[in-house]
Write a structure and sequence with these properties.
Helix content: 25-40%
Radius of gyration: 29 Å
Number of helices: 23
Structural class: alpha/beta
Bound molecules: adenosine-5'-diphosphate, zinc ion
Distance between the termini: 47 Å
Oligomer: single chain
Largest sheet: 7 strands, parallel
Shape: globular
Strand content: 15-25%
């Protein structure tokens, strides 16, 4: 960069980057994407140069102090991607880069000077003093520490020493997070008998709840989980330990369950269909994008792996995105099996320092395949050949905070800037992607399962008329499902049962006045939980005692309504006493890798029935699973969101796809009160295309994406009246803007959001509908003139994932 000034972004919510002067002596290292040390008020911070800048008017710009890296940290396509995101989602560039770069690499990080070999012979003067100091201190030290010790600014001297090769600079996180390596776990001793319990816990109900909660979790649980998720106080934990019923142990956190595992080697020969699909991907022009639409079990993973292998053979790297690492251990294991140490697995269990290490290994080319969830789209692969997004329809690819990016849309842009190919894979493509086929996306199909295996037969059980097992009580248990489970168990095969609602019962209702127990902070009914028993809010985790009279009318006995996974598990245990059960939902997956452990035991054959929420629907490939049962297909159908049908279809099709993946075949039973609903009908027929055709037609009128683009302006705050007024003002502002510029945009609202209150904050929104380009313009305008961090808070969400 030849300009004398540069704009530097910092991980702060600033609308504009700061401008700094570039000193001659370090000018050659300063290019867009480079890390630099800059003064920010009284401190020094590490920022990223984002552009040249004209000289600032009126003020004198401060100097950039140093540039630690010989090569820019961000490649030019990555920086370009960041700039696109900042514009498209109307987010400050600093915050956008914050989503891209590990925290440990910039911001508050410290710059360490490291003595190079032979460097000690260099010079006299201040440089000599710096070198002397470093030699005395074992060869390295933080630059601010050196300055303090020598009582002078040292950056000029340090830069000169770097230039002559006497020093190198390293950026290190301000705080090392070694503490995170261990966690405190509560471990139960010999369990007291039921009778002892009655005695011991007569006046200590909380302690009994705690004991039973930990029993439920297999006898041990991290304290953090007991506190954060289940709401037990430290005092209750202490009391249980004092009674000698439990101990607290330090446990090394299981950091990376993938490290050390060789992975599963993939099949070696492609089927003809896979070969055709791979050839179509290879034939894409650089920067070209495709939708790999393959039924469940069609062997999409092997196509991904081969596309990655082809890119690597050309000397390029690859990114594979999965919805969530902990839920897709099999996919990760296959990538590891194919590419071994070349793979960097970016999962949420990494500490800041480990994340920074992985980032460096990728940036330097030491690892050329990055696998991870949403944010792995920013992996700094220096020369990117292919981006694969598995299960491209998944909601988790949309980020919930600023920048509110969708990884799929970021991937399009990055692939274009990199000249990389993009592969979006799914058995149930999103209407957005399917709508782009022929335009931005080339369609590639895998219409059949590997080995000619049939799709499992799906039987729909109409719960309005079906014969039911009486003893099941609140559990809708049809004879058809009962017989199917029984015979699966008799044959020694495995069953998967989906119920997308955790807890014991959906809500507690007064049989006398009809009042339903609600969270005091959120506009949502409280869910009934057993073990630990209580009413719990699934939004804010607040809990209330279960045994209480109706607060409205005083009626003593309350009735539980609706069904959750805990109750289903209890029913299964009585109905099939010999079956080995495992439950997988948010309440049983307390530690980060508990999913992993549960799935491993299913894979080993230690579990006969796996029941769970949507967690069990994704990507599992167990050949001995021959039955999939959906207990209540209607749980998500009535959500007041334009994606409720899409989500229902995807969930049913995905979970159905877990059956019959081995030679024994399989079947699916779907229980529903709405057999005529298009999501349920088409999922039962494995007919994704008819579903998409019907859904796309429905989204034309009233229009919803992809027919139109949306922006959601969400106003929230603790004061209901102020939120309502601010929302009305926001709607007026939008209408004024639309009228003034004669924009083809419809403004809807303000209305209270379907979830009108969460964690004590009232929520109203204004929805804008219109062509993408105009929605983009209004989003940017609203982000500067309307959005605000103070109360009530106003955020602008372009392409919202849900309207709840
Ligand atoms: P999808 O992701 O499309 O649901 P998978 O990639 O999980 O499907 O493949 C389904 C099953 O078929 C897996 O068990 C996989 O190992 C197997 N498979 C895939 N391709 C081949 C092949 N070419 N030869 C033999 N088995 C294969
Ligand atoms: Zn709540």
């Amino acid at each position: 960069m030849t300009a004398a000034f540069g704009q530097v972004a910092l991980p702060l919510p600033l609308a504009q980057p700061y401008t700094y002067r570039i000193p001659e002596a370090i000018a050659d290292r300063i290019r867009p994407g480079a890390r630099v040390v800059v003064p920010v008020r009284q401190r020094e911070m590490v920022g990223i140069v984002v552009a040249e800048a004209p000289p600032p008017e009126g003020v004198t710009a401060r100097d950039i102090l140093s540039a630690p890296d010989p090569e820019p940290a961000l490649t030019s396509p990555l920086l370009g991607t960041a700039q696109w995101m900042a514009g498209y989602y109307a987010a400050p560039l600093g915050l956008t880069l914050k989503a891209m770069l590990p925290a440990a690499l910039w911001g508050e990080s410290r710059v360490i000077a490291v003595l190079a070999r032979g460097g000690e012979r260099a010079t006299g003067g201040l440089g000599g003093e710096v070198l002397d100091w470093l030699m005395r201190k074992g060869g390295e030290g933080a630059v601010p520490t050196i300055a303090r010790a020598l009582k002078r600014p040292v950056w000029d001297a340090v830069n000169r020493l770097v230039r002559v090769g006497a020093l190198t600079l390293r950026v290190e996180p301000a705080e090392t997070d070694r503490l995170e390596a261990h966690e405190r776990v509560l471990v139960l001793g010999e369990p007291p008998s039921l009778l002892e319990r009655e005695e011991q816990f007569k006046r200590a109900k909380e302690q009994r709840r705690l004991l039973e909660a930990v029993e439920e979790l297999g006898g041990r649980s991290p304290l953090k989980h007991l506190h954060d998720q289940l709401g037990f106080s430290a005092a209750v934990v202490k009391a249980l330990v004092a009674r000698g019923l439990a101990t607290i142990e330090e446990e090394t956190k299981l950091r990376d369950p993938f490290a050390g595992h060789p992975g599963t080697p993939p099949p070696t020969d492609l089927t003809p269909a896979q070969r055709t699909a791979l050839a179509a991907i290879e034939a894409l022009p650089p920067g070209g994008a495709s939708l790999l639409f393959g039924v469940t079990g069609s062997g999409k993973t092997l196509v991904y792996l081969e596309a990655i292998r082809a890119a690597m053979a050309r000397g390029k790297g690859a990114i594979l995105l999965v919805p969530e690492i902990s839920l897709t251990p099999q996919t990760v294991s296959r990538v590891r099996g194919a590419f071994g140490d070349q793979v960097a697995v970016l999962h949420s269990g990494l500490s800041d320092a480990e994340r920074a290490d992985a980032w460096r290994a990728i940036r330097s080319g030491e690892k050329s395949v990055a696998v991870g969830a949403r944010s792995a789209i920013f992996a700094p692969i220096p020369d990117l050949g292919v981006i694969v997004i598995d299960e491209e329809h998944e909601a988790s690819y949309k980020n919930g905070e600023s920048p509110r990016y969708h990884a799929r849309d970021v991937a399009y842009v990055r692939a274009r800037l990199e000249g990389a190919r993009l592969v979006l894979g799914s058995a149930t493509p999103s209407p957005e992607s399917f709508g782009k086929v022929g335009e931005k996306l080339q369609l590639i199909r895998l219409p059949e399962r590997v080995g000619g295996r049939p799709m499992p037969k799906v039987e729909v059980v109409d719960l309005r008329h079906a014969e039911r097992i009486r003893e099941a009580g609140a559990v809708p248990w049809s004879s058809a499902l009962d017989t199917a489970v029984q015979s699966t168990l008799d044959r020694g095969e495995q069953a998967l049962l989906l119920l997308n609602r955790r807890g014991f019962a959906s809500f507690l209702q007064c049989p006398s006045c009809g009042d339903v127990a609600q969270c005091s902070q959120c506009s949502i009914s409280l869910t009934v939980h057993q073990a630990p028993a209580g009413l719990r809010c699934h939004y804010c985790n607040a809990s209330e005692p279960l045994n209480r009279a109706c607060p409205k009318c005083g009626h003593a006995v309350q009735r539980m309504r609706g069904l959750g996974t805990q109750q289903l598990e209890r029913w299964l245990a009585t109905r099939y006493p010999k079956a080995r059960l495992a439950r997988m939902d948010l309440d049983t997956t307390s530690t980060r890798w508990s999913h992993h452990r549960i799935l491993e035991s299913v894979g080993r054959g230690d579990v006969d029935i796996l029941l769970g929420t949507q967690m069990i629907a994704k990507g599992l490939d167990f050949p001995n699973v021959t039955l999939v049962g959906v207990i209540d297909a209607d749980t998500g159908v009535y959500l007041p969101d334009f994606r409720s049908a899409e989500r229902t279809f995807q969930l049913l099709a995905q979970v159905a796809g877990r059956a019959g993946r081995g030679p024994k075949g399989g079947r699916v039973i779907v229980q529903t009160f709405r057999p005529d609903h298009h999501a349920i009908r088409h999922a039962a027929a494995h007919d994704t295309e008819s579903f998409l055709a019907e859904e796309l037609a429905m989204r034309e009128s009233p229009p919803y994406p992809p027919t139109v683009a949306l922006a959601n302006i969400l106003v929230s705050g603790p004061d209901e009246t102020k939120v309502g007024t601010a929302a009305a003002d926001a709607a007026d502002w939008c209408r004024g803007l639309v009228a003034q510029h004669n924009l083809p945009i419809t403004v809807l609202g303000p209305v209270a959001s379907p979830l009108a209150r969460i964690k004590g904050r009232w929520r109203w929104h204004v929805v804008l509908k219109g062509p993408a380009e105009e929605i983009g313009r209004v989003t940017r305008y609203a982000a500067t003139h309307l959005a605000r961090a103070g109360e009530p808070r106003i955020v602008v969400d372009r392409d919202p994932g849900s309207m709840l």
